[in-house]
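Two quick folds needed for the group meeting slides. Do the first one here.
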Amino acid sequence: MADDIPAAAGRKSFSEALGESFWLSAIWIGLVVLVTLTAELWPLAEYDRMDFNRPAAPPGTEISAPLEGEPAKEGKKVYLLGTDTMGRDILSRLIFGARTSLTVGLTTPCIGMVIGGILGMLGGFYRGWVERIIVAVMDAILAFPGLVLLLAITFILGRGLGNIILALGVLTVPAFTRVARVTTLRYAQLEFVQSARMLGQSDIDILAREILPNVLWPLLVYGLLVVSYMIVAEGALSFLGLGVPAPTPSWGGMIAEGKEVLDEAPHVSLIPALVMFLTVLSFNLMGDCLRQAIDGKEEQL
């Protein structure tokens, strides 16, 4: 009995196993999401209003005269984070641009997780010709240049947030398929699955009740990492002219717009780049901490 006390004392709950990095990252992500969802409630300038008298103004620039089209009582304000090259409020564009970047980052992995998860589970469970066909299709998608696919979709369907999500979502399917397939192969031959077969459960019941709960956690962990990749990918597309069309703001578009004035006004690009960096880092840390916590729980079992 005495030997069990130190062992029990050394065990951590799942929340404790996640660590401080996870919770600090979750707080940052929660703050970004909260501010983004309540953007209309904040006293922000319109994200597309231009102040031609103050292009690339530094953070903290005060305005004493009203802007064109605004009443005199609303004229006095402060650009807390400055303005971009067209005189638009960076803080306002940063908050509203988070909607675009987070929509791409959170929606795209969901497409890959659903489609790739289903295909990976089918391939790992049935094996044989089903697995060979799925693996061959995924290999073909991986071999196809992603940039060419993005250009093709943009050319055929036009630029737009939905088309970007669709194109990036297709590119994430093979990776999720591999994760789901490997995990399914690991659990498909275990005793509890064999017992379910002997009890006469159908393949759909086994996949839904026995395999899916074990596949879901690895997919979720990998999905958090893919979120960060997709946010960066959206930023990269903006540099290539494939991002969300103006005047809709996005973090990647804001960084791209300031690349020509890095010497004179580095804040135009560096401020959105810093916010993107912290967000991407937070998603990566959350994914790593969650993976380590799950691995630790499995070792205890």
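Then this one, please, same format:
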Amino acid sequence: MVGLLGQRDELLRLVQDAFPVTIHVRGNEISVRGDEVEADRVGRLFEEMVALLEAGHVLDRDGVGRSIAMLKADQRPTEVLTTEVLRGRKPVRPKTSGQKRYVDAVREHTITFGIGPAGTGKSYLAVALAVQALQAKEINRIILTRPAVEAGERLGFLPGDILAKVDPYLRPLYDALYDMLEPEVVGRLMERGTIEVAPLAFMRGRTLNDSFIILDEAQNTTPEQMKMFLTRLGFGSKIVVTGDVTQIDLPESRGGSGLLAVRTILDGIPDLAFVELDAHDVVRHKIVQDIVNAYERASD
């Protein structure tokens, strides 16, 4: 009951505040009084929470809050939160229904576009799916790439050769890898070329077979770069393209964002999916979700 209701009943109060019902706890028995529809929904919520505990999940305020949101949208939290993307150093699972749609789309399609604001797990889940595919021997290598677009800083003033100059742009992809695999394992795989992290310009002229290829920050590709990247696809490969169309850093002279144009161009092509994520799928600190919502309101 402590796992279900939380220390000092903090999780119980969270449920109580979310629904117009009265909840009574006596020993191991929970009773709910109020509107029949709402009481039934709360009963299903507790059933889902018990199932999550039995599956080994530890309930916290964020997890219960997301479960409440799913129940109100007539979704089952257990179907989302028990979906395993990667087992290992750090288990990775979707935390929202939107993230589960994204994971399912990547698994079911050859090319998937994940579009949404910061904190929705687009890049992180894509890297986790790539690592899982490598471990399952479904592919032979992982290729992670980003356009090296100057966002207020000039590449030319950064020290080192071209790889050193673009390294800061690729750092978020390294961070995701190190979060899921031991550092020595990442180093070994990169030395062998099993994992390759490179700027988008390095993709030109290549055909990538038996690979899981992720293009991150795709809103900063030009239409020509997007076409070049997508046509690198070889046999036995999968592509995931992630981006946030509200954070385009391309200068106007570059001809616009390839991510904005691609949906219209590729509409109707089979084995290709577009998944839209929004502020409800932000899983960083709650203030990040509030910031995303505030900017969306300001742009309306």
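Slide caption for protein two: The chain is about 45% helix and 15% strand.
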